[in-house]
Amino acid sequence: MADRIALITGITGQDGAYLAELLLAKGYVVHGLRRRSSSFNTGRIDHIVHDPHETGVPLTLHYGDLTDSTNLLRVVQEVRPTEIYNLAAQSHVAVSFESPEYTGNADGLGTLRLLEAIRTLGLEKQVRFYQASTSELYGLVQETPQRETTPFYPRSPYAVAKLYAYWITVNYREAYGIHASNGILFNHESPLRGETFVTRKITRAVAGIAAGVQSKLFLGNLDARRDWGHARDYVEGMWRILQQDEPDDYVLATGETRTVREFTERAFARAGITLAWHGEGVDEKGTDVASGRVLVEVDPRYFRPTEVHLLQGDPSKARERLGWRHQVTFEQLVNEMVDADMAAVRRHNAGVPT
Ligand code: NDP
Ligand code: GDR
C-alpha cells in the first residue's frame, strides 16, 4: 500500500527505530528525519537502512532538525506524508535542566514548526499528526493513577516544553481541523534505550559487574517510582492512535509502578546476584549478599532540582477505544535488557563488533 507514507522525526532514537520497523512491516513507505552528527548516529536502524543507490527503497532518511523551520517545510513538501510521527526531542529530563533553552526550542517550538509546515503547505486534511507527549506532564501528581483528565504540573524544562507541544497539538486540531493526537506515554524501555536513562544504565552496569569489567553502579533517587513498559508495545499504540477516525489524546501505560530500587534488584537477580540494602538516604548501599561487596551507591549528582516521585498510568481509555494493552511484563522487560547487555559484553570481550 504505497499510498501510506510516514514521516518519522527522531527515527534514530529508541522509539523511532521500533516504529520504523513496525510501519515497514505494515507496507508503509517510511521517511525519517536524521540529524547531522560528527559520528554515526544510525546504529539503531542500520539493519533497515538500504544503500541510497538502490531504487524503490522503502526507507529514506533526510537531514534535518526540529529547530530549523525551513528545513522542516522542505522535507514535508518533498515527502508529502499521510502520517507524521513527531518523536524527535531532547528527551533527557536531567539534561533539560542544563540546556533549558535548547530543550524548549526543540521540544516545544519544534512541534509548532511541524504543525505550521502542515498548515503552510495546505495539508490539513491530508496528513495525520502524532505528538510524543509524556507522563512527565503530570509531574507533581494531582491524582493516582494518572489518566487523560488528570491535571498537569510539569517539573522540569523538558516537561514544560512538552506541555507547550501538547497544547499546540490540541490547538491546531481545534483551530484548523488537523487530525492531530497526543500519545501521553509512560516510561518505555528496551535494549535500544539510551545508555543514560536509568533502566539502561542499570542493565549495562549489571552486565559489566557480572563480567568483572565494572566495579560499582552509582545512582540518584532510588525511591522514584515509574510505570515501565516495553517500547515495542508502545509504538503499536502510537500507530493505533493515528488509525482512529477522530483525533484524540490517549494515555499508554502498564498501570503498574515500581521503584528504581526494585528495578535494580531485579536486574542484578537476572545475573544471579542477590542484593541487600543497608543505610538510609545518600548513605544507602546495595551489597552482594554472597560476597558482601558494595555494588550500588547513591551519588547526589544524579538528583534533580525538582523530581517526579511517582508515576502510574491508567490506560483504560486506550484499552477500550484502541484495543491496546501492554504485552511485555516488567520481569520480561528487565530480563530482555539484562540479557542483551550481557550478550554485548561477551561479544565485546570476544573482540566481535557490537
Ligand atoms: P530518544 O532520546 O531515544 O530519541 C530522540 C530522537 O530525537 C533521536 O532520533 C534524536 O536524534 C532526535 N532529536 C533530538 N533532538 C533533535 C532535534 N533538535 N532535531 C531533530 N531530531 C532530534 O527518545 P525516545 O525514542 O525514547 O522517545 C521518543 C519521543 O517520545 C521523545 O520525544 C520523548 O521525549 C518522548 N517520550 C519518550 C518516552 C520514553 O519512555 N521513551 C515516554 C514519553 C515520551 P539523535 O539520534 O541524533 O540524537
Ligand atoms: P525519566 O527517565 O526522567 O522518567 O524520563 P530516567 O530513566 O532518566 O529517570 C527515571 C527515574 O530514575 C531516577 N534516577 C536516575 N535517572 C537517571 N537517568 N540516572 C540515574 O543515575 C538515576 N538514579 C535515579 C530519576 O531521578 C527518575 O526519577 C524518561 C524519558 O524517556 C522522557 O523523555 C520521558 O518523557 C519520560 O521517561 C516518560
UniProtKB/TrEMBL annotation:
Domain NAD(P)-binding: 7-337
Pfam family, one: GDP_Man_Dehyd
Function noted in UniProt: Catalyzes the conversion of GDP-D-mannose to GDP-4-dehydro-6-deoxy-D-mannose.
Entry cofactors: NADP(+)
Keywords: Lyase, NADP, Nodulation
First-tier enzyme category under EC: lyase
Family named by the database record: Belongs to the NAD(P)-dependent epimerase/dehydratase family. GDP-mannose 4,6-dehydratase subfamily.
Protein name: GDP-mannose 4,6-dehydratase
Enzyme Commission code: 4.2.1.47
Organism of provenance: Rhodoplanes serenus
Molecular-function GO term, any one: GDP-mannose 4,6-dehydratase activity
GO terms under biological process: 'de novo' GDP-L-fucose biosynthetic process
Reactions it catalyzes: GDP-alpha-D-mannose = GDP-4-dehydro-alpha-D-rhamnose + H2O
